[in-house]
């Protein structure tokens, strides 16, 4: 898909690159760092792309990435983007008009007054914050998920971790990268809403809840004033600093990259997914599928009840959103595809990754609507929505299940959507109205398959655009390009509809009645089978874990 997007560039691409009428988006996802360069003359089109694969590490029972990996990965992806631009257009960019940084939301990066990292980066994937999340949810009267930054901070307070008195600043991964590129400790409101609850009327942290937290920890940690250590909150369209000389050297150690590009507010992957799918207005929503999978639904009104399955976050413009976030997405599906790809190679019929996925996905279309009674749990990590602190990937079948390749792959695809569907049914119970649901992520590259099954799982039409597989990096590039447009008072939704998606084509799949009924039956069996998943966690401890 990278090549397909880049070859759609306008004829004046070389002029845009030379004149720096471009916006660079970078997104640090769970398994890949992606960079995307667009023309400000037409933000819907891509000029060049670059990427670098990476993977989290499980160290001392925590999921993490080293900061050294962050910068080596960004530099590798940036070099690949420069090479791609030069190959396609004969111009090697020496600077950009605007830049945006996005990354996986939530998690915990804590620094001291000297800017030194106090403890290794704790990612969204960690589920060790149960005590803190429960206490804060009760205190605030809103759901505080395990992965939120405030849950990580408070768990460190509860556990009397030695680094807490030294904390000067906490942020997310996107906020960290932006800080190092510009010197500014800021965060886009969407990413900030995964750190601490946001008041949508002020588009800032909820002042009353900040005060409640300070009171909560006043006796144990009187020096801890939450407002002083959180990033400043900005909304889409606000300039958030310029690329410094030091920041340019971090992106391009050769010294060829010029400083001075304007940066937009750093955003989380949820916010960039909303932009990439034109889902920032009420009654619109999107599903983003990667290492995790989540749905974002822009609300018309507040929810009536608190639900542990739902986060309350915001769009990049600060409007309220209900989020169904599942820790486990398409990674287990990809592992099985890798196994089948290796089998093909061993049989002397080598296939590339896209061919493997295409063959398996097409086979799934011939399976039974309920996957023949097969269940697949994609739980590589814990899954808070279903109450599991750890995960064990499983395939479960009964002797009377119809065990075919088609049903096996269909069960794996259903498994990607299973926990998400449980959360979306909670939203249905709240009477949340939804006119359009968009989807993006690599699993939608095989046209019409995962999209069809998602439509059946949600019983709702699902639309996919041509940018579906590279949505995040492209989305933050669009937010970077929006900074100049916002100066003239243009609204983000208007900008997306008129300037970015005006001529866009979306492939829409309506739910198939047999798929809807089959998935509903599968989901009931999946819900019952969670007892098997829980038993597997208890019976099969991870290597190196301590009883």
UniProtKB/TrEMBL annotation:
Q: Which domain of life is it from?
A: Bacteria
Q: Biological process GO annotation list?
A: D-xylose metabolic process
Q: Where is the Carbohydrate kinase FGGY N-terminal domain?
A: 24-249
User: Which keywords does UniProt give here?
Assistant: Carbohydrate metabolism, Kinase, Transferase, Xylose metabolism
* InterPro entries from the UniProt entry: ATPase_NBD (IPR043129), FGGY_C (IPR018485), FGGY_Carb_Kinase (IPR050406), FGGY_N (IPR018484)
A Pfam family found in this protein is: FGGY_C
Q: Please name the SUPFAM superfamilies in this protein's record.
A: Actin-like ATPase domain
Q: In what residue span(s) does the Carbohydrate kinase FGGY C-terminal domain sit? A: 286-481
Gene Ontology MF: a single term: kinase activity
Provide the transmembrane region boundaries: none
The record, for PANTHER family, names: SUGAR KINASE, XYLULOSE KINASE
The UniProt family comment states:
Belongs to the FGGY kinase family.
Q: What is this protein called?
A: ATPase
Give the organism the record lists: Mycetocola manganoxydans
């Amino acid at each position: 898909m990278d090549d397909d997007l880049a070859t759609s560039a306008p004829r004046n691409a070389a002029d845009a690159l030379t004149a720096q009428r471009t916006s660079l988006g970078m997104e640090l996802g769970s398994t890949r760092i992606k960079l995307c360069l667009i023309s400000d003359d037409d933000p819907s089109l891509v000029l060049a792309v670059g990427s670098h694969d990476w993977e989290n590490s499980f160290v001392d029972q925590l999921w993490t990435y080293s900061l050294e990996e962050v910068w080596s990965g960004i530099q590798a992806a940036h070099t690949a983007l420069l090479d791609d631009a030069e190959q396609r257009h004969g111009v090697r960019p020496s600077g950009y008009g605007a830049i945006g940084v996005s990354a996986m939301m939530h998690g915990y990066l804590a620094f001291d007054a000297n800017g030194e990292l106090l403890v290794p980066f704790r990612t969204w994937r960690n589920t060790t914050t149960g005590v803190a999340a429960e206490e804060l949810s009760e205190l605030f009267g809103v759901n505080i998920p395990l992965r939120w930054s405030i849950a990580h901070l408070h768990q460190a307070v509860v556990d009397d971790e030695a680094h807490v008195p030294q904390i000067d600043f906490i942020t997310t991964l996107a906020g960290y990268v932006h800080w190092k590129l510009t010197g500014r400790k800021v965060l886009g409101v969407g990413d900030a809403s995964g750190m601490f609850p946001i008041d949508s009327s002020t588009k800032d942290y909820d002042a009353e809840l900040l005060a409640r937290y300070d009171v909560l920890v006043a006796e144990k940690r009187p020096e801890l004033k939450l407002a002083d250590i959180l990033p400043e909150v900005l909304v889409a369209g606000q300039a958030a600093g310029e690329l410094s000389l030091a920041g340019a050297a971090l992106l391009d150690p050769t010294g060829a990259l010029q400083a001075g590009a304007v940066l937009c507010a750093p955003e989380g992957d949820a916010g960039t997914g909303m932009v990439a799918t034109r889902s920032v207005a009420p009654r619109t929503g999107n599903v983003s599928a990667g290492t995790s999978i989540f749905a974002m639904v822009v609300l018309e009104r507040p929810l009536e009840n608190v639900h542990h399955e739902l986060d309350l976050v915001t769009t990049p413009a600060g409007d309220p959103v209900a989020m169904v976030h599942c820790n486990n997405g398409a990674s287990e599906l990809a592992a099985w595809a890798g196994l089948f790809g290796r089998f093909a190679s061993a049989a002397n019929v080598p296939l590339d990754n896209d061919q493997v996925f295409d063959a398996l996905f097409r086979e799934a279309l011939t399976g039974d609507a309920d996957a023949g009674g097969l269940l697949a749990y994609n739980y590589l990590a814990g899954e808070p929505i279903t109450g599991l602190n750890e995960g064990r990937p499983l395939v479960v079948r009964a002797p009377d299940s119809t065990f075919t390749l088609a049903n096996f792959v269909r069960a794996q695809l259903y498994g990607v959507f299973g926990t998400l569907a449980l959360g979306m049914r909670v939203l249905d119970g709240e009477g949340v109205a939804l006119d359009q649901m968009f989807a993006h992520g690599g699993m939608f590259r095989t046209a019409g398959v995962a999209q069809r099954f998602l439509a059946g799982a949600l019983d709702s039409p699902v639309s996919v655009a041509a940018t579906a597989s590279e949505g995040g990096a492209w989305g933050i590039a669009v937010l970077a390009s929006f900074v100049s447009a916002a100066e003239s008072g243009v609204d983000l939704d208007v900008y997306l509809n008129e300037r970015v998606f005006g001529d866009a084509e979306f492939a829409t799949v309506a739910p198939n009645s047999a798929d809807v009924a089959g998935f509903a039956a599968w989901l009931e069996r999946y819900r019952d089978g969670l007892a098997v998943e829980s038993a597997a966690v208890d019976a099969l401890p991870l290597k190196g874990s301590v009883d």
